Amino acid sequence: MIHEKHKEWLEARGIPSTLAEEMEISTMTRHGANWLCIPYRLDGEVVNRKYRLTSDKRHEMDKGGKLCLWNADCLFERPDRLIITEGEFDALIAMRCGFPAVVSVPNG
Most buried residue among 1, 14, 63, 105 by CB atoms closer than 10 A? Predict the structure, then answer.
């Protein structure tokens, strides 16, 4: 579930919160604050998570988590075209524009 403030933050950037929820992005409480939690999956399994504060530009990932492309499982569909973005939110914008095969690098 995404916190209402995070939904507003996403929507202000042109990202429908429903799309973010479809991609299993959620809100988690860490270090006494609410962070957006972005799961990284390989073969359907969560292998890492990126956490982002929206109040300032701070990121964290799971300690010991595997580094891989975000949304890498879209590659199993053998797309004709692939978009590679610098960040997950850029990837969500590309998805919103109708591009289904979009991945993001884990560390920009």
Answer: 105
